[in-house]
Amino acid sequence: MLSAGPTPKVDKSVWEFTITNETGKVYRWTWDEFMALPQDDVSTDIHCVTSWSKLGTSWRGVKLDTLFENVDSDCEFTMAHSYGGYTTNVPLKDLLDGKAWVAHQFDGKDLAPEHGGPARLLVPHLYFWKSAKWVRGLEMLRRDEPGFWEQNGYNMYGDPWREERYW
Fold first, then answer.
1. Closest CA to 134 of 125, 149, 124, 122
2. 67: part of which helix (H) or strand (E)?
3. Which of 12, 67, 81, 94 has its CA 20 to 30 A from that of 141?
4. Cα separation of 86 and 108, whole Å?
5. Domains annotated on the chain, with CATH
6. 13, 17, 2: which is closest to 134 by C-alpha?
7. Per-residue pLDDT band at 4 (split at 50, 70, 90)
């Protein structure tokens, strides 16, 4: 339950998720609009940079493919932004084709704030710092840029199978 700062209090009545493309166009979903989208149940393993893994975890959320259906962008990179100011970079190819979700439930229960609730990014094939807690949006980028932990020595990509922990 490591975090880059204090747990923000995010009320679902003001929560929104946005995708901002390179022209500045913003695609936006309120909590109610987000919850009306098709939902996936996901069973997956997760891996933390601090050398632990949790096998067979259960999540519920919206596939990033669904959110990107009508987004117009030529960019190959994204920066995830969270309530509280946290950022992490993720290549777009790692968010699409059923590889990532905006998750709002864990083990059949709403995500607790200390675990990223009301919603967090879930990118299970990368180290868990890429699964940004309290996610509020994605910014499309023309080139890869480091987020919070990447600026502080973590690997730009974070593949657990290659043990890409640090620079």
1. 122
2. helix 64-67
3. 12
4. 26
5. 16-162 (3.90.420.10)
6. 17
7. low
Beta strand spans in 21-147 (E): 26-30, 40-47, 53-63, 77-82, 87-91, 101-106, 109-110, 120-122, 135-141
Residue 83 tokens read as 């309530």
Distance CA 129, CA 90 (A): 11
CA angle (112, 117, 122) in 5-degree steps: 115
Q: What is the pLDDT of residues 40-83, one digit of tens each?
A: 999 999 998 888 899 999 999 999 999 999 999 999 999 999 99
Q: Which residues of 10-44 are buried (b: 16+ CB within 10 A; e: fewer)?
A: bebeebebebbbeeeeebebebeebeeeebbebee
What is the distance between the alpha carbons of residues 106 and 114, in angstroms, rounded to a whole number? Answer: 12
